[in-house]
Amino acid sequence: xxxxxxxxxxxxxxxxxxxxxxxxxxxxxxxxxxxxxxxxxxxxxxxxxxxxxxxxxxxxxxxxxxxxxxxxxxxxxxxxxxxxxxxxxxxxxxxxxxxxxxxxxxxxxxxxxxxxxxxxxxxxxxxxxxxxxxxxxxxxxxxxxxxxxxxxxxxxxxxxxxxxxxxxxxxxxxxxxxxxxxxxxxxxxxxxxxxxxxxxxxxxxxxxxxxxxxxxxxxxxxxxxxxxxxxxxxxxxxxxxxxxxxxxxxxxxxxxxxxxxxxxxxxxxxxxxxxxxxxxxxxxxxxxxxxxxxxxxxxxxxxxxxxxxxxxxxxxxxxxxxxxxxxxxxxxxxxxxxxxxxxxxxxxxxxxxxxxxxxxxxxxxxx
Length: 367
Fold this sequence. Notes:
Helix content is 28%, strand content 22%. By secondary structure, the protein is of the alpha+beta class. Belongs to the MsrA Met sulfoxide reductase family.
């Protein structure tokens, strides 16, 4: 078809069918990653949205078309790797690396969990200079974050050639689910990752990029000091101590602020961190002070709470680590959230006292 005819037919088609859109050209890139046993790495990388396919294989050695037996001997110079093909319109190379690092031990260059030897060490085989630069920068940021507790020892190696592993290694976790689950559990991989990222890391994942951005943001906020345990015990009432230190809950309709209508802000009873504003407070009918959003999200930390028969989202203060309450998704507009807090975990600062007590930053909200 001539170009002019194609363009004319396209214009006519769009005119006749306004909802018709041209298909977006898919841009595919490949990441070659070594994270120990390729059964596990393949399984974890295939969970990432935007990943098209993951193939297990070998890279880094000089022997052509090596076998698993040869590579596992540790004498060929190869490393067990996966080739990850991904759609760059859906997921970036850094996001692929983020998923990769959150499912391996990047600090062990002598092997990976129960699999020992150089053929199981962590590595990134970069395909071009851009991938190399992204990986170098990201590794430095993760190291500075300190989430892995040890320095990263993940090698950056220029990609040369990828050799596909034997058929029985491909999609091993799907073809042999029982053997795979047994191996994975016995390897200690998930136990290690749970210790680093928490047992809810799969259900409520938090990316390394989110951790890094959060840390950078915290560097710009005013820090608050958590007193010693002895000081906290002395300064709090029995109820305040039980709520903030023992994750307790006060009685509804029988607490200081559930019906407070004064203008001002609510701060952490232990550290003074600014938590909520009266401007975001509403009558929820629960008997506890409820808010649609925090005053400053930098001072709020949320985490899964499995203390009941279902999972709730606990709310804690960042610096004092006080238990404040829980947040639910049944609140009013504009957020749809209900931050259900304990009065005993907070101290109310009236609007007229905010400047004197060092909270003048938030006065503009009340103008």
